[in-house]
Amino acid sequence: MADMTACAPALIRIDQLLAAGEFDDAVAIAEALVAETRTADTLRALGRAQFERSTATFDEEEHEAAFATLREAAAMVADETTRAAILADLATMLTGSVFFTAEKEEEAVRRYKEAYALDPTNIRVLIGMTMLRAHPEINASRGQAIAWVEQAIAQGTPEWWHWSELGKLYEEEGDHEQAIVAYEEMLALFPFRTGHPLEFVMRQQRKHLQALRAGRLELINLDFHPPGQR
User: Fold this and answer.
1) Which helix (H) or strand (E) holds 134?
2) What is the pLDDT along the chain (230 residues), one digit of tens a residue?
3) 190 Cβ contact list (under 8 Å, min separation 6)
4) With CB atoms 3.0 to 4.6 Å apart as the test, which of 13, 20, 111, 177 could cross-link to 91 if both were Cys?
């Protein structure tokens, strides 16, 4: 049986294939890896590959198999930090499911809470708890949500949408100065001119930021209207 050092190149290759959209190849390599070495790491890779392919193909059976694979991976590992990371993967997949249901939301909340108890520093858990803060099982105040996002941002290289969430929270809080700072960071990180599907929305957000700076928000309509339908 191969050890994890031997598995590392295959795990890296799976990540590369997923990033390139080569889902069939990623699943094939992950399945072979699990057949040889059934560990939490290899199952985690397989679950992620199954999820990405089934999302692209709308294969509900494989979609459910991806969740089952991640559940098995989480149950196998004793290390709390690693288990929290796998649970964060599972919760994120549940909330991003193309077959989203109320039951998936309930499980996602449970998984985020379980992961938070194991590792309250996990960035994906902190952001996930923020996104689901209104759920009765989380019921976090806006101040708590701001603290979670700021903690996530402080730990590593934040994504543009982390800053977006923070800006929105500060704006809801009435702290426009902090909201402006967050939105500036968001726009600095957003990949403009790359064909990103949210680029039109981000261009509207530029106008929103200008209005926020000028104190004339009532002049800006933030509703989304696709180009050509305004």
Assistant:
1) none
2) 345 678 899 999 999 999 999 999 999 999 999 999 999 999 999 999 999 999 999 999 999 999 999 999 999 999 999 999 999 999 999 999 999 999 999 999 999 999 999 999 999 999 999 999 999 999 999 999 999 999 999 998 899 999 999 999 999 999 999 999 999 999 999 999 999 999 999 999 999 999 999 987 644 444 433 444 33
3) 160, 196, 198, 199, 202
4) 111
